[in-house]
Amino acid sequence: MSSTRSQENRRQALAGWFFVSPALLGLIIFLVVPIVLALYVSFTNWDGLSNPLGGDVKWVGLHNYQQLLTHDGLTRTTFAGALRNNFWFVLFVVPAQTALALWLAVLVNNKFLKGRSFFRTAFYFPSITSSIAITLVFLFLFQGGGAVNGILNWFGIHGPNWLADSRGVIHVWLSGVGITKPPGWTQHTVMGQSLWDWFSGPSIAMMVIIFLVVWTTSGTFMLMFLAALQNVNEDLYEAGELDGAGSWQRFRYITLPSLRPTLLLVLTLGMIGTWQVFDQIYLTGNNPATRTPAYMSFDQSFQNNHFGVGSAIAFLLFALIMVLTLLQRRILPEEID
Amino acid sequence: MKSVRGKRIIAAAGIAAVLTTAAACGSSGPSKSSGSSAGGTGGATSGVTLQVLIGSSGDAETNAVVAAGNAWAAKTGNKVVVTPAKDLTQQLTQSLAGGTPPDIFYVDASKFQGLVKGNALADVGEKITDSTDMYPNLQKAFTQNGQYYCVPKDFSTLALEVNTDLWTKAGLTDADYPKTWDQLETVAKKLTGNGVTGLVMSDTLDRIGAFMRQAGGSVVSADGKTVTADSPQNLQALDYLQKLAKEGALKFPKQVDTGWGGEALGKGKAAMTIEGNWIVGSMSKDYPNVHYKVVPLPAGPAGNATLSFTNCWGVAQKSSHQAAAVDFIDYLTTVDQQMSFAKSFGVMPSRQAAKAQFTQQFPDQAAFVTGADNAFGPVGFPGFDAVQKDFDSKIQGLADGSSDPKSMLSSLQKNATDALSNN
């Protein structure tokens, strides 16, 4: 009796595996194998001109990682610059896009708003448009003699040559208050970059991309917030109103806590996405003021034929995102005790 | 969950299919016009299909190569499929890594050494008829370990292009074309004003390097074994350019909202620019009404010097049609064919035998040809690309003083030495 049962179980398991096998196969071929291969390549000197598993490829151990992290050279300086750029990018984009998305969601969730579906579509539109196309438009708008500077001109403001301007905004601000020379203590270098350079803030060129990304991605996150908002129990608001809560208090003590899981999701997705930013950087050209690790990985691999270094960057980036995500979950638990 | 995953896979497969089709469309566009002609009684190498990957400067070049391919194919009974690459380096790398490289492809002088090191290039230079007739400095660019791997396709040199209308408007005459650095500074200052900048040139070592050579400096020694970037000669060149930039007489294309020197000259934002032969084609196509003249670069403290840029016809080591490939390249590098390329897309023949004919047919490009005698090729060792990009990114800072010539050169020295020792 029990043997037939276990046979039946086995047959069911077999059928189960059979049914998931196409999906599994796809995952293995397109995900697992490339990742393992990339990990292998990150420990070799593969130049991309031959078979990565062939005899010409030398195992170099941690050499590529050393070039990026410890060896005092151009690769490390470039990588540090890319990390710096991306760090400021994340720091500016994630809070801004989350706040904007939440605000838009609350606006279009308003029952008394006329043409709600129009606004929902309008705000979502940048998200579904090709990022390449939007970036191209921005390239034209933010030329030195482009439309943005034209408008600034009406107000007598002489705008910078946005995308060619590599000055960090914190440096610009400091020079505005009279600090133009880096103070002595900032000369200490970390990974080949002085502290002064680390704290430059995003470059003016990067500010354009920050603005662009906040605008394009907030639509997607607005949609997530909107879905969550519609799940908030109406009774809570009624109860709040009876207790004499104003609209701000209702938002602060009812809406925001109910949105907590969504907020966490948006922050996490936002952070992962922003650490991987590539298209916009690729289009604005190989500018050290906007270069990010993802772009550097591409550049090292396909332009310099250093696929080992390129893959190593990818894995360092993966580790960084992992650590930051876990950290974020620690700081912002999904449930409040 | 299963169905969601399944859908995702299907979607992924769908996307992959779309991408593949798109890629196929992309490559079928150009190859539609490319050669496929049968017939003809070929020799030993008939019935072969040659894949040719080119880094084309535009339709004119693509069509010219396709036409040459068709003519050769008709003569020999082979087939030639020409594919213009969108990004030659990337596409070539991908196909080499995949083990199925095109039979013939353009090889830029700066990428040559890397390809040799990767064992990707067949050594066919000397199999081409009269291959030693090519300009010696071009041959040298494609020689490694004493082996002459591939023959130069054509070449370009840098010269000074002057907008003649702005020139006369500033009260300058033919006698004023600058022969020295001082004269260049004088005329550049004179031409600057009213939204015009005296000299606009790209912020790259591929222009600045000419000034270094004119001062007697270089980035690497002649044998390519030592880095000589932080020399007083190079410093003199950078100091000179910084002076011009601070005076406002020299600007970089981005500062005047343009992509490169030719655009600045064409739009009347620059009175002078420094570009190579490629500027001729784009000026006549994009700015046919702008009058300009090409004159040699002024001499520096150490005399005349310019930079040359060249590609060779590389044959893949893995190609199974090497004999046919050599035969086709032989056809492509005859004097007649090189002259026809010169006419179609404005490059200079790499054969010295074609020099007289070229000068006679294109007298207004004489300055480019005279440059050939004192032209230096680019720095070509693997890994220098990244070093140069880093250097280039600092050039614009010369104008506002945020880049200091001395530290630019010392970091160039350090990074290049580092890259060279990794080889």
How many separate domains of chain A?
2
Structural class of chain A: mainly alpha
Number of helices of chain B: 18
> What is the end-to-end distance of chain A?
49 Å
User: What is the mean predicted local confidence, pLDDT of chain A?
Assistant: 89
Question: What Rg of chain B, in angstroms, do the CA atoms define?
Answer: 23 Å
CATH class of the largest domain in chain B: Alpha Beta
Largest sheet report of chain B: 7 strands, mixed
Estimate the helix proportion of chain A, in percent.
55-70%
Instruction: Detail the poorly predicted runs of chain B.
Output: 1-43
Q: From the alpha-carbon coordinates, what is the Rg of chain A to the nearest angstrom? A: 25 Å
Briefly note the structural class of the backbone of chain B: alpha/beta
Strand content of chain B: 5-15%
| Annotation, overall tally of beta strands of chain A | 2
What is the makeup of the main sheet of chain A?
A: 2 strands, antiparallel
Q: Which pair of chains has the greatest number of interface residues, and how are they split between the two chains?
A: A-B, 38 and 40 residues
Number of domains of chain B: 2
Low-confidence stretches of chain A: none
Overall 3D form of chain A: globular
Mean pLDDT of chain B: 87
Keywords (chain B): Signal, Transport
Family (chain B): Belongs to the bacterial solute-binding protein 1 family.
Protein name (chain B): Extracellular solute-binding protein
Biased composition (Polar residues) (chain B): 404-423
In short:
The complex is a heterodimer of chains A (337) and B (423). Chain A contains 15 helices and two strands.
